[in-house]
Amino acid sequence: MLLLPGPRLDRRALILILDAKKRLFLCGSCCRGWTPPEVRVQSGVDFFKATQSFLEESFDIRDHRYGDLYGHRWASTSGSWDTVRRVEMRVIIAKIDESQPHHLNGGLHVWWTLEELKMNHRKIYPEGVVLFVTGYLEGWLPAGPITLE
Where on the tree of life does the source sit, at the highest rank (predicted)? Predict the structure, then answer.
């Protein structure tokens, strides 16, 4: 039997959920510190559709608006030639209002203010999330897609 390597393209959406108080929703993680929710996006599926489905299924968020800014990043995993994968990542802002579920608090899920994010930026993964959110909330990043390197 012939075994073929798995797909070499990994597609992911990093979801920055912001509430009406301009706080960022982060998940506690045992390995990498605090992270925004992330979802794997299947080949041929739109990043925004995958994000919408994930928010509905995981957090019961059914009514959100996307921010007018999103990030796009390409990276490669390290390893030998047969295990190296390309990663396409979209950083998507999902804004929610007070009418959305309030069960997002507690345990390993916490809302962080901009000041808390800036003070604790080394605890948040991936690196650059705090800068991206700060630029969006303070208005110094332009609307539209941004390439992240």
Answer: Bacteria
Q: Which residues pair with 94 in a beta bridge?
A: 17, 66
Give the H or E element holding residue 49: helix 47-59
Among 18, 15, 54, 14, residue whose Cα is nearest residue 136: 18
CB burial of 122-141 (b: ≥16 within 10 Å; e: otherwise) equals ebbbbeebbebbbebbeeeb
Domain with 138 in it: 9-147
Domain of 73: which CATH number?
3.90.79.10
Residues of the chain with pLDDT under 70: 1-8, 29-31, 77-84, 101-107
Q: How many CA atoms lie within 13 A of 84 on its CB side?
A: 6
